[in-house]
Task: structure prediction
Amino acid sequence: MDMMYSDEIKITAYDNDPKRISRLERVIGYAEALAEHYGNNNLLNKISKLHDYKGTMTVSWKKQPTEGEKEILVKAWESRIGDGANNVEHEIINI
Result:
């Protein structure tokens, strides 16, 4: 069960677990709010996909993220609505 966030970010999870998919949807919303708070309106445009594999979130970027943008995703994942850990991997994909 793959999902899309805002018709632009693919959300996938290990074993297509609906709980993991739902958690990623909440995490990306939280990350979007953090980015807006810090004046970054481009964050979501840089993300292609989020994947949860047994508690590790992989962020696939369309464009090179800044360290601050990576940190926003880590903060969202380690928050109460995320996994509670900082297990985040970043990859740049070619589109």
